[in-house]
Structure formats: structure tokens, C-alpha cells
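Tutorial handout. Part one gives the primary structure; part two gives the three-dimensional structure as C-alpha cells.
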Amino acid sequence: MGPFTLAVDAKSSGGISSDASNRKMQELQLEPKKFFASVNARDENPFDFLRILFEGVIAGGTAGVVVETALYPIDTIKTRLQAARGGGKIILKGLYSGLAGNLAGVLPASAVFIGVYEPAKQQLLRNLPENLSAVAHLISYRILVGVLTAGVLGGIASSFIRVPTEVVKQRMQTGQFTSASDAVRLIASKEGFKGLYAGYGSFLLRDLPFDAIQFCLYEQLRIGYKLAAKRDLNDPENAIIGAFAGALTGAITTPLDVIKTRLMVQGSANQYKGFFDCVQTIVREEGPSALLKGVGPRVLWIGIGGSIFFGVLERTKRFLAERRPNDQRYSKTE
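Part two.
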């Protein structure tokens, strides 16, 4: 092969390369912009369900206990404001009443919750089209709180733990009982087993939109910020995004929280016959503004709680990821 042949080949190759490059640039320019930020999870390592489940359980349980312990007094004030009818006086003593019993329920509930959310979210991100990644975050969390497929098991298990925990906690916060064991025993004896699940429907009605909106907001803001900054987020950044998502969602869902609280703390008095009767009675007797009772403490509590929860959650996930075997250390989908 002579020099002339090599020169022709080089020119030909260069022309082909140039044409390919131009075509690629045109394709990139024609590619539509995506409204939602997303991460393509299909190119990552094989889906490791057990690892993601385990890390989600540990991270979720840790985050749940930390945030509940830190902000329990604010939660107590919020509950007392919502439970007070008319211009009832709010007592500021015993703000940690019921904490120990509540943590006994928060730990497994948070562990189950995140333990199902993380693998469900990541599996959906792998299977849905990339431009539907925002929907993936929304659907995966709805699966968690209780409708269909594998995620429903975690959602139902979580709600079965969370509702009795919430009932006992709020009865103690409003001074009806002095210990969790007494609360469980007396509620069961006076109201039956169903008394421990008072307000179950309103609890799910509040938590379904709350969880879906909060996590969808958090995931999309976090991914969008990550793509804009072209780096992983640090702990303060995760905390700020979590605070914003939590505070906004908390404000939006306050009326549902007021109704849930009233149904849970009414006990055997049965002041309200159900969700709609509760709404009508509150509006008729106290005015529409009563549906926003406790909105200040709720937004403060969930805003600070979101910063702590998501900050601890991401930090714990990163801590666990750093201790994986070397061949399993990947983080783009997490």
C-alpha cells in the first residue's frame, strides 16, 4: 500500500468522521428539551433488590427516629391546637408526653416505608421512559402507602404500624393518658380493637397526597440541582431541599391533618360520624379557618423535619454505600 492510498484513506476517513459528527450535532439540536429532570438508571449495574431494601430500612429507621425525637414538642403543640374546639386554651406542659411509645412505632414504620420506597422507585426509574421519571417518583411512593403490586405490602404494613402509633401518641399529647401501655389497654377495652385505628381512612387520605407530593418535589428538585451543579449534593443542600419540600407540602395538607386529628382524638364520644361529617361540623361550628388550625407549627415542624429527615436519610445511605464491596459501589440511581 503506497503513500497515495494512505492519504486517500485518511481523507475519506476524515470526511466520514466529519459527516457523522455533523449528523450527531443536528440530532442533539433537534432533541426536545425535557420538562422534568431525570436520571437514566438503565445503564447502571443489575438491580440489587435486597441491598437497596436493606439500606432503605436502615436509613429510613434512623431518619425517622432522629426527626421524631428532635421535633416532638412542636408536634405536640400542633396536635393540641388542632384538637382544641373553639377558643380552647393550649397547655404547654408535658410536650414530650408519649415520645417513648411513639418511637417504638416510628422506628419500624419508617424502616418499612423507606425500605419499600427505595427499591420501588429505582425499579420504576429503570422501566419507565426517561421523560416520565417525575411520574416514577410519584407512583413509587403511592405504591408504598398502599394500593397495588409488591409495594402495597410495605404500604399496608407501614400504615398498620403508623395509625395505632399516631392514635396513642395524640391521645397522650392531649392529656387523655399518661403512658403508652395504659393508652393501648384502655382504648382497646373501651372502644375495641378498631379504636386503635380511629381515623384510619383520614390518615391515608392525608398521607397519600402528602407523601406523593413531598417525595416527588424532593426528588425532582434534588435531581435538577444535581444536573445544574454537575456534582453530588452535600448534606446542607439536601437538607434545604428537604425543608422546602416538607414545608410546602405541610401547608397544603393542613386541612386534612386537622380532620385526621379530630377523628383520632375523639375517642368513644363519637362527636363526628366520619370524614365528611367532621368537615361539616368544624366549618359550621368554628368556621372555615378552623381547618387551618396549627398550620404554623405544622409548617415549622415538617419544614425542619424535612431538612433533618432527608439530610439524615441521604447521609446514612451514603455511609452504607461507602461500606459496600468495591464492585457494588455505584450511586447514580441513588
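Part three, for discussion. The chain is about 70% helix and 0% strand. The two ends are 54 Å apart (CA to CA).
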